[in-house]
Amino acid sequence: MLGIRKKHITGFVLLLGVVRWYNLALIAASQYLLFWLAFSGHELGRVLYDFKLHCIVVASLFSVAAAFIINAFYDVDKDLVNKPKQVLMGKLLKEGSLLNLYVVLNFLAVAFAMMASMRVMVFFVGYTVFCWFHSHKLQKLPVLREVSASLLTMIPLLAIWFHFGHWHWGMFYYMGSLAILLFTREVVKDMEGHKGNLIFGYKTVVVAAGVRRARWGLVAMNTGFLIMYLVLNWIQIVDPVLPNWRPDYYLVISGVSLFTGFWVSWGMFFIRDDRKIPVMDAFLKLGIVVHLLSIVMQ
Fold it and tell me: Which domains occur in the chain, in start order?
């Protein structure tokens, strides 16, 4: 009896690693903070008692967990090269059980989304299909692979805007700078896992363009976006062209995130030691966490 219980506990701990519980916790925290600060009038009671909000958050957690499972399933070969310890631990979980869990999680995600509204249900059905398509097809296509992976991370946050919010320029700044930061991290991860991607034919940006050109591309992209950001803000100060624009939280955090991507890309360019890549990746992870949770400053 004790052995069975220990086996179940071990399986649960391994499963938490596969679905990346820390990412799920960050997504849930970001969604609740966004609703509280942007759509509830800072009323905690509205957060606690909004049934549709809780349904959207739970649907997001189930769908993202399912996405991590199917992504790990398709990436198992290259991860044996890039992350052998993680894969060997994950191998203790049966593939059949994981695929069954993938189906169940997606079903639960759609069910909870439907309890929020039919529109939200359609949103999450599309997200579920997109997650599968990314893992099954887009993973081996350069640029599309990195762009789709960035979008998959952003979409759960967009679910809150989609149901409760309305478009404004602050959202453009916030989501745009987050997308650039996420794309930068995807390319840095490609450099870190270049060996496995090359062996198993994953046509990442780094494999297609080469490490040197990929480094140049990161520098050009992040430098260009930072310059565009500074120029746009200067134009707004001199002769405003965007409606209802003012320096605010969204503007500040976007600048911080764009500068983080700029700094990391130049760091990757000058520091050619591959052992430093995980350090740069850690800085980008920190930048993403700060970007998501800094909405509490709004």
Answer: 1-140 (1.10.357), 167-298 (1.20.120)
